[in-house]
Amino acid sequence: MSEYLPLVVLFILSTLVAAIAVALGHLFGPRRPTERKLQPYESGMTPFGPGTRRMPVRFYLVAVLFILFDIEVVFFIPWAVVYRKLGLFGFVEMLLFAGILEIAFVYAWKKGALEWE
Amino acid sequence: MSDPVTFVAKWLEAYLSGLGLASGWIAVIMAALGVIALGSAVLLLDILLVWVERKVVARFQDRLGPNRLGPFGLFQPIADVLKLLLKEDIIPQGADKFVYNLAPILALATVIMLWAVIPISATVAGSEINVGALYIVAVGALGTLSIIMAGWASNNKYALLGAFRMVAQMISYEVPMVIAILIPVILAKSMALTDIVESQTVWYIVLAPIAAIVFLIGAQAELGRAPFDLSEAESEIVAGYHIEYSGMKFGLFYAGELLHALTFGGLFATFFLGGWRGWGAETYPILGIGYFLIKSMFMYWVIMWIKYSFPRVRIDQMLNFCWKFLTPLILTVLSITAILDKLMSGLPYWAYVLGMLLSNLVILYFVYQAVGRYARRERQRVADPEKFRVNFPVKSTASPSHLP
């Protein structure tokens, strides 16, 4: 596990550096808040309604498609390393797995999940 | 003594054990020192990148760029950083303070984290973990998180819309990009980036040109750079997810974006251009650092070249291009590469390389034909819209017969 040690150290270090940069900005920057200044920026117009609002469902559809493919890819990665050792069985098995996912992909395509209207 | 890096590391280790420390602590201290050196080098490079980016943009747009501070304006980034430090730090009304402050930190930290597994020379690599490719994918996905955090916590409609667009784009293009990474993994039979570089006696861009192109397109989209810069479409949503950020927090997003571009240049060099490999890089590993930097800087320049040459695409075009073109294409290439690798495993290496290259060229030819056919149809559709018109049951608004 010792090769994972630098990763932990780098994570702590990089977070620390970025946090220090933010803190320095806090320290040196002036702070003169006014009510107008703190309003969300909407090209100079007076903002209306809440800033965090409902979004078109299309974005979530993309996210669901991504999950489908990401799982496929996550299973592909270890297979890609050892598939020569797995022989014909592992190869056909993976093609079957990919084929089933392709059917799902074609289904999503035909259903119009990939259309953006 | 051909490698100063190993020499310094050996000397330090001997010095620390001379102090009477336990071997576990020596490992921790060595890791910390190595990583501090790597992180500082990366951050210094990041500051230089501000100058590079501004200068190159200027040249593309027929301007001179920064040229007042220092020779060739080299001190400009330092002035930029000082200015950002002295700017007012505004947290907008209704923002989720903790998430709002965490997002820029995460944006920069994840990019620096990526450098941990990239082999910079034969002897310099942050960590030689055996799942390097998987690590790249996983940590790269953390960057997406920082964007959605920034967009959601800002309490701003533009920021939220920009973040949603950016995230939809990043996760879509991650699919073809990760499959494109798989092809070097298949060719090298290892996920460790050090192994991938060492097995490239012939650069993988020769064996897998399509994967290289798809990786480059994916990188462009992942970075949110034109033609995929919908997240910060100035004419629509002003600046996208970092619209409410000012001062150093904006600076961190900016620095993270620039460094991310160089990181993708470095990853492209590692996966497809042979990383640190070059003339004499094995006997003198210090040369490898130079080769690696030249290759990654060249790819960084290519990414900039694309950015400043293409207009922005629409979101439906962007997603169609990914899901209906790149993903099926790269899946086809992946299966053909796997089958060919299996069939040609007994052949001599030059025949193997030739077979891979020819198969890629054949696929490219067919893809070119298909794209050409699609483009012809689209041109006809634009030229003669009547012929292709879809008749919607639209109520006629043109006949004001009920009016007097």
Q: Which tags fit this structure?
A:
heterodimer; A: 117 residues; mainly alpha; Methane Monooxygenase Hydroxylase, Chain G, domain 1; 3 helices; B: 404 residues; 14 helices; 68% helix; 0% strand
Task: Detail the topology: elements first, then pairings.
The complex is a heterodimer of chains A (117) and B (404).
Chain A: H1 5-28, H2 35-38, H3 58-111
Chain B: H1 4-18, H2 23-60, H3 76-85, H4 97-114, H5 132-153, H6 157-188, H7 193-198, H8 204-207, H9 209-222, H10 234-237, H11 247-272, H12 285-307, H13 315-343, H14 349-383
Helix pairs in contact in B: 2-11, 3-11, 4-5, 4-11, 5-6, 6-9, 6-13, 9-11, 11-12, 13-14
Textual characterization of the structure:
The complex is a heterodimer of chains A (117) and B (404). Chain A is an all-alpha fold and 117 residues long. Chain A has one domain: Methane Monooxygenase Hydroxylase, Chain G, domain 1 (Up-down Bundle). Helix content of chain A is 70%, strand content 0%. Chain A contains three helices and no strands. Chain A starts with a helix and ends in a 6-residue tail after the last helix. Chain B is an all-alpha fold and 404 residues long. Chain B folds into two domains: 85 residues, no CATH class; 293 residues, no CATH class. In chain B, 68% of the residues lie in helices and 0% in strands. In chain B, helix 3 crosses helix 11 and helix 4 runs parallel beside helix 11. The termini of chain B are far apart. At the A-B interface, helix 1 and helix 3 of A face helix 2, helix 4, helix 5, helix 6 and helix 11 of B.
